[in-house]
Design brief:
Elements: E1 5-12, E2 19-22, E3 30-33, H1 36-50, E4 78-82, H2 85-100, H3 104-111, H4 115-122, H5 130-139
Antiparallel strand pairs: 1-2, 1-4, 2-3
C-alpha cells in the first residue's frame, strides 16, 4: 500500500515571523506561512509541487525518473501533511509504471490512447477524471482505497 502523507516540521521564523515548513523525505519541499494553520495549508500545496510532474516548472520527478519516497514515521513535534488526492493518485500511477517497467508509450498502447493522454494523466496540474485514473491503475494491477481521517 502506498501512502502520500508526509511528516512536516514547522519551525518558528524568528526574523520574519510565522513558520517555515520542511519535509525530511522531500528536502526540496520548503514553504512558509504567517500562522500555524496557513503554514500547514501551504505545506500541502508545496507537496503537490514536489510530486511527479511533466511540467518543466516543477520538481520533474517523473521526467527525471526520480523516486517518490515513502513517508517516514512521524516524530515528536512533526505534523502529517497529505498530498492532494488527485496528485497522490497520479504519483501512485507513476510508481506503478516504474514498478512494472512500463513506459508512457507502452501504457498508452495498452489503454488504446495517444501517449500525449498518458502525459496528461500523470500531470498533477491537468485535471483528470477519477474513472480514467482508476482504469489506468487497474491496467497496472492497482486500485484506489480511500481513507478519510480527522485532522
Amino acid at each position: 500500500m502506498t501512502q502520500f502523507v508526509y511528516p512536516a516540521m514547522l519551525t518558528a521564523d524568528e526574523k520574519d515571523g510565522g513558520f517555515v515548513v520542511t519535509f525530511r523525505d522531500l528536502p526540496e519541499a520548503i514553504t512558509q506561512g504567517n500562522s500555524w494553520e496557513e503554514a500547514l495549508h501551504e505545506a500541502a500545496d508545496c507537496l503537490e509541487e514536489a510530486m511527479p510532474s511533466a511540467s518543466a516548472a516543477n520538481a520533474l520527478r517523473i521526467d527525471d525518473k526520480l523516486e517518490i519516497p515513502q513517508p517516514s514515521q512521524l516524530k515528536n513535534q512533526e505534523y502529517l501533511v497529505a498530498v492532494p488526492a488527485q496528485t497522490a493518485i497520479k504519483a501512485a500511477l507513476y510508481l506503478a509504471m516504474r514498478e512494472k517497467g512500463i513506459s508512457k508509450v507502452q501504457l498508452a498502447s495498452t489503454l488504446n490512447i495517444h501517449e500525449k493522454e498518458v502525459r496528461r494523466i500523470l500531470d498533477p496540474h491537468h485535471t483528470t477524471k477519477l474513472s480514467t485514473m482508476e482504469r489506468t491503475l487497474a491496467v497496472l494491477g492497482q486500485r484506489i482505497e480511500l481513507q478519510i481521517t480527522a485532522k
